[in-house]
Each structure stands twice: as C-alpha cells, then as structure tokens.
Amino acid sequence: MKLPLALVTLLSCGALAQHTSNWAVLVSTSRFWFNYRHLANVLSMYRTVKRLGIPDSQIILMLSDDIACNPRNAFPGTVYNNADRALDLYGDNIEVDYRGYEVTVENFIRLLTDRVEPDTPRSKRLLTDDRSNIFIYMTGHGGNEFLKFQDAEEISAFDIADAFEQMWEKKRYHEMLFMIDTCQANTMYSKFYSKNILATGSSMLDESSYSHHADNDVGVAVIDRYTYYNLEFLENNVQSASSKHTMKDLFDSYETEKIHSTPGVRTDLFKRDLKDVLITDFFGNVQNVEIDGEDEQKWKEDVLQLSKLAVDFTMPGRKNGTCASAKASVETPAPAIKKVGAVRVEGSKGWSRNAMGVGALLTCVAAWVAGSALS
Question: Which PANTHER family match (predicted)?
Fold first, then answer.
C-alpha cells in the first residue's frame, strides 16, 4: 500500500533531520581604532547570520573594542564595511554579549566548554547540545598557530583544538564550521583532531591577510578581503534560509587573485561531502524535530495507522489492499438521516462531565441529610 505523499514527507523529514538548532560565536579580538576593519568583519557576519534566521538568543557576539563610540569616529554610533556607507552595521538592533576587556582567552574557552560561573546569564552561555550546528568566526591579528587577544595575550592552535575536543566529548555540537580571517590563518586549524569539524581560513603559513579598501572619511580600512568576498557570495547567492547553495559552492568561489592570499579548507575531520552541505546548515537556522529513539517505532506505527485510515476514508470500497468485487449489486441508497446537534467531543470535556456528576451526587446527599433532619 502506498502512503499518502504528506505522510511520506513527514516520515522522511524525521529520518533525515541532522541537527535541530544553529548557533554562532563571532569574535573580534583586536582593540584600537586602526583595527576598525576587524570589528566590521564580525558585525558583517553578525548581520548575515541574523538575516538568514539565527536569533540573537543563539548568537554569542564578542567585541573587544567599541569602535562605534570611539572619539575618532567621524560618524559616531556607526560602523560601516564599505566606503559608500550604505549600511550601518551597528545600528539599533545589535546585542553584544562580551564587550571590551571581557573578551579574553579564558572567557572564550570557558564559553566553548561551558565552564562558566554558575551565575553567568544565559546571554553569555553557549547552550548547545549534540544536535546543534555551530558556526565559529574569528578575526584579528595572528601568526603561526596563534591569534592575539587585545594585544595582551594569545590563544594557540592547540588551545582551540583541545577546547573543541572537550566540546565533542561533552556532546556540545553536532557539526562545526570554523572560519578565521587573520595572517597565517590556516595554521590555526592545523592542530584540530575532533570529529565533524569543517575549517577554513584566509591565508596559509607565512602569508598575510589583507584589507580590501579604506574609507577616506573614516580614515582606516573598513573590511578585510577574505571576509569581503565571503560576504559578497552570501549576499548575492544566499537570499534566504531556503537557499540550496552548498559549502562547496562557497569554497569554489574563492580566488587567490582577489583575496591576495591563499585561502584554505580542511575537510578530513568532516564526514559529509561538501556538495551535500548547505550553506544554511551553518549560516541559517533550522527548526527540525528530533524523535527519541525509544518512541520512534511507535511513532512510525501510528503514522502507518493514520495512512490506512486516510486510504479508507478516500477509497471506501478498498479493504485490505483489494477493491470490492465488481459483481456486487448496486446498493439502495440509505435514507437520509437528519443530524441534530452534532457536538465535537474533546478529552477535556470528560473531566467536566465527571465534575458535574459528582456535583449532582453531592446535591442529592445534601437533600437527603436535610430531609432526615427535618423529619
């Protein structure tokens, strides 16, 4: 027996659901006005993931300096990623979770591994599980296997690798995309050893990562090249969370001549083929439903029963997979029955009826007691 199309779709969605939530951790590690572009890099990614559906409650935004309020800013309260200043990235719809000197190596690792203080608010916690896809984006100044934080400390490739392993052991992610824009960026994911991590960076060993252009009125560079061309692809091709473009499409769009460095991609820890990985698996938001393994068989049996009822309803003459005999005589139409006061019965009404019955019984008892007293 063939299942109705809607039921087949329902079954297939339950079977193929890979992750049930999307999170993003976006980190700018640089201070000072001349690093304006690093803040613009992060805010550009922040705008993109929000545009594709990830809510602020599932985005951890770490900004190491408040460039928007810097006294050197000719356009106070704003941050732009293009010299035409068509889009204010800061605006009035931004939620910064870690700001200024809160952006430290220790806080970053505690965030990833969930080793935060008990009184840490939810907005500063990465509340993921083994069905969460996480997009981690970092930008700043770095070198061979290290990234600076605030020009005061460094995080190494080993530190991040070990933090990711703790996350895997603690079932804090399903799949992860790690993207980093810094000098010698590709060395930062060279030490990873945990499962289901897809990593990409802006430049290889001994290569610098370059800015794209400057705004003469702002006085500094406003975005880096690697981030600029990632955003260009996402803005032009991924218009909504229903986009079918894949990570392979994004990585294939990288051109060394435009980026001025050699972007890298590491896939050996990632089990899926890139042509099957949607960009929105990391940059967008999903709301799939996960079914517990213990109840999955019962759920499928229930759906099968529903499909049988649907077939019986749409094809009354069909029984046990066969149609009724063609030789059956024509039945005399049944007399029309007038339906009077058909009432929809709901489960909650059973309690109401029970309450009414108990009330009536108590009334009878009270009347009997009163009558006995009078007599």
Answer: GPI-ANCHOR TRANSAMIDASE
